[in-house]
Amino acid sequence: MSQYQDHNAGEETSRRLYVYNGGFFTQKRVRLLLHGAGYRLSLGLPKAGDLVGVWGQSPTSHRGEAIAAKYNAPIVRIEDAFLRSLHPGRAGEPPIGLMIDETGLHFDPAAPSDLETLLKTHPLDDGALMARARAGMARMQEAQVSKYSACDPDISAPDPGYVLVVDQTQNDAAVRASKGDRSRFLEMLFVAQEENPRARIVIKTHPETAAGYRAGHYRSEDATGNIEFFDAPISPWRLLEGATKVYTLSSQMGFEAILAGHKPRVFGGPFYAGWGLTDDEDVFARRRRPLSRAQMFAAAMILYPRWFDPYSGQTGSFEDALGAMEAQLRAWTEDSKGWVASGMRLWKRAPLQAFFGSHHPVCYEDTPTKVRNISGKTGRRRMAWAGKAQGDVVRVEDGFVRSRGLGAELTPPLSLVLDDLGIYYDPTAPSRLEDMVQRVAKGLRPDQIERIERIRDRLLRSNLSKYNLSGELPTFSPGHRILVPGQVEDDASILRGSPDLQSNTELLRKTRDANPDAVVLWKPHPDVVAGLRKGHVEAPEEWADMTLENCNISEVLKQVDEVWTMTSLTGFEALIRSCRVTTFGAPFYAGWGLTRDLGRVPARRLQGPRPDLNALMYAVLVDYPRYYDPIRKLPCPIETVLERLETGNLPSPGPFNRSLSKLQGALASQAHLWRR
């Protein structure tokens, strides 16, 4: 799936790796990563040419070390990568990456490691590699991704201007390797005070200490005067933003401090010390090469680890792992306190649970009073389907690359949006999407431009759209072709977004009146054609040269020059395909300078920087929606959904949904006949 070809993706000769820790066999992801790195896990005793694998300097590593010494077998040391999971490993979550070192331990300065050799000898001058490193640093900081990423975004950081002192857990192997003990940590705290007189000192407690797994080195009696503890689950990036200086023994937070622009004061011998990016207490004779932040990141995060792609189930690139962690962290951030939902039809509840219920099951307002009372006491947020939302709730709606099949046919969605301000189709009030468009209009990073251009290429190459319907494409008459997409006339996007024109018939008539010589193509909405919704046009041939039904909108857009619409998503899909677009309403893509707008556009969209098409697409397709992989049952980035749509690897609606859809269609048809 990844466009990057690191050592992670290559075929390597399999070598026997003898291990003496049951976790290597019970953790499927660890087995897959080791297999992808060219190792074949084995039991028994090594022979000539075989290797012995141990987990870092864990309590069980002595078993493998003894066997390796007895049989003269090289040792391979395995550790979690610097980007690991939402929660610490002791919580039971598998790692998304491993560091596999055949030379030493990256955290032990007493002897070289493969990582140190990379930092010392690799050219680290390839332009593409450096671009990936700069992009990776920016993405991690923007998404607040760290080794353990499950932090509470509602927690406030201390007021900025403090000196940050980082604690670590007692008896940790990395602490022992740097000769760390309580005395050394107290010395570090004393130096921080001495070098920063009268400054506030904030001691950051290790996540495992805060969670009660392992004790730290600092005690409550150490917080005297201007010294305070901070043990709340906050993103390290937010703490680093407010710090004026950072002190650490060997914590990964020291590495992240470098990435955040600090030059941390280091009292131990972590891998990142000695390269000119830290202020070191010790001298590292083997480390004399000055490195940039991007070079350090490229070696430690891209070249050294082995990464897992949870959507393919195989090894992948750093970007695959980062994309997965971004999606999973977003789901954690938005869902970890739980949801209470209202106005949700029965068939929507299973998809909603899949999207939003992985950390706490979604509760519904029509469940028993006891459940409602419990949910109300736990700080759960409230959500409602956007068209039925009332009051202060988060609105839910389908995303823009939704499914292979109609929502009215009860096909489960692959994307949904959450909006805590309004909803994208309602221009009468601000929406979170508008905020996102205005933010990215200030300029995308080079990696974001490259990413959205790849997404656009995939959409065009694979003819992907919102519903991805198939059908025969007719032969079109020559001339200037204008596509007029029909809409559901009682849909909220029409009622809210097109107050001056809400009739498909009037839309067709106005388009023909303004373009008397054009070839006008009328495409009624699929839900209207199916008899499920309102919007039928009695005699479209009076204004249209051809009526299109049951055909792929992506293929149609290749054949037309313009799209005239009220608020249809087809207008956005037309922009992606370089068609001119005229709007009579104010859809989310209108008012930014990319369309000809005949309707009333909110004044707030006419202010500030103008987004180009890449920026608009990035906000609409990457930032705003959430995506869900129905195969792996995980939150995912848009690229995974595109992969599923391209390959057709999607579950079909169940028999309950199909039966309910037919019943819904029959009832809608009867209601339509009764109205006529």
Keywords:
24 helices; 16% strand; disordered C terminus; 676 residues; Rossmann fold; alpha/beta
Q: How big a fraction of the residues is strand? A: 15-25%
What fold name goes in the CATH topology slot of the largest domain? Rossmann fold
Q: How many H/I helices?
A: 24
Please compute the radius of gyration using only Cα atoms: 29 Å
Helix content range of the residues, please?
Answer: 25-40%
Explain how this protein is built.
This protein is an alpha/beta fold and 676 residues long. It has 3 domains: 7-111, Rossmann fold, CATH 3.40.50; 127-304, Rossmann fold, CATH 3.40.50; 438-647, Rossmann fold, CATH 3.40.50. The protein is 34% helix and 16% strand. Strands 2-1-3-4-5-12-13 form a 7-stranded mixed sheet. Helix 10 (252-259) links the parallel strand 9 (243-248) and strand 10.
